[in-house]
Amino acid sequence: MPKIDYLKQLKHLYAPSAKQVEIVEVPALNYLMVDGAGDPNTSLAFKEAVEALFTLSYTLKFMVKKGPRAIDYRVLPLQALWWADDMSAFITGDKGAWKWTAMIMQPELVTPTSVEEAAQEVQRKKKVAALPRVRLEALEEGRVAQIMHVGPFSEEGPTIEKVHAFIESCGSRRVGKHHEIYLSDMRRAAPEKWKTIVRQPMA
Questions:
Q1: Is residue 182 a contact partner of residue 62, using CB atoms and an 8 Å limit?
Q2: Sign of CA dihedral 156, 158, 162, 165
Q3: Positive/negative CA dihedral, 78, 83, 87, 93
């Protein structure tokens, strides 16, 4: 049975340098998404969104694996888009004002029909509070600047500033939403070893 590792196939998107900011083109990719607001560290909505995304993603993985195509693949990591009505909330640390879209990229093997079937299977087996809020949607970010941040989220500030300064040095401007990709299993890895891709679309 073939097994696809999309992190390796899309290495240019998921393995940036931790030393310097890079520019890459991100094509249209499909994601399971859940929208919400509030402090991700204390918000029940964020916890429920993550649970729904991973439960549905693994259900889809096993559906494809057991289906007629018989292809196995690695479930991709959690990602999130971040913004606020007043962007100063990120400077002041007012996390209650943050808005977010939690998401997990899905391979082209996953279709709207298979998502619907997987959601029905999950509903039959267990109660997943945020499941009705999950949608499959394409996101095309285009040209982005990105870098790998190694360490806890609380120390991301200088890394984000580095990305913003790089974009300005290119004579470009920031567009879209701040994007983070969480490569580490935070339940097992020490915070100082967490790997997070910091990505910002630019124009």
A1: no
A2: positive
A3: negative
